[in-house]
Amino acid sequence: MTNKTFFLASVVLLSYGTWLGCGEAEAPANEAIAVEPEIVKPKPGESVLIPAGEFTMGTDQQAPPEVAVPAHTVDLPAYSIDVYEVTHGEWIKFITEVDFRPEGNWRQFYSIG
């Protein structure tokens, strides 16, 4: 094989290899599409679940109110709580509009002032 033929064969093979490599790249099949999560604001009257857990209640600081000492760990079960605050005015309006009658002796836990 002469140098001219060898050179021509090399150019043809390199050109063919370049042509094969210039095809369109395929997108990965498992490519995940990022989706922004929709933020849903809670409506008045809805509640959320607070998971069970423990927290430190009280304080060990000097001269705190008597009911705040000593600091101690409290373990609470899971519970639900309203998303938004209910004012006394809203509560009074509710119980008068629907003639709500609370069950049990709730007054022992409630004091005015």
Describe this structure in words.
The chain has 113 residues and is of the alpha+beta class. Helix content is 26%, strand content 16%. It is built from two helices and four strands. The chain has helices at residues 3-21, 88-97, and strands at 47-50, 53-57, 72-76, 79-82. The strands form two sheets. A two-stranded antiparallel sheet has the order 1-4. A two-stranded antiparallel ribbon has the order 2-3. It is elongated, with a radius of gyration of 37 Å. The protein starts with a helix and ends in a 16-residue tail after the last helix. The model has no long low-confidence stretch (mean pLDDT 80).
Write the layout of secondary structure elements.
Elements: H1 3-21, E1 47-50, E2 53-57, E3 72-76, E4 79-82, H2 88-97
Antiparallel strand pairs: 1-4, 2-3
Question: Roughly what fraction of the amino acids lie in strands?
Answer: 15-25%
Proportion of helical residues: 25-40%
Q: How many strands appear in the DSSP assignment? A: 4
| Quaternary structure type | single chain
Radius of gyration, Cα only, in angstroms?
37 Å
Average pLDDT reading: 80
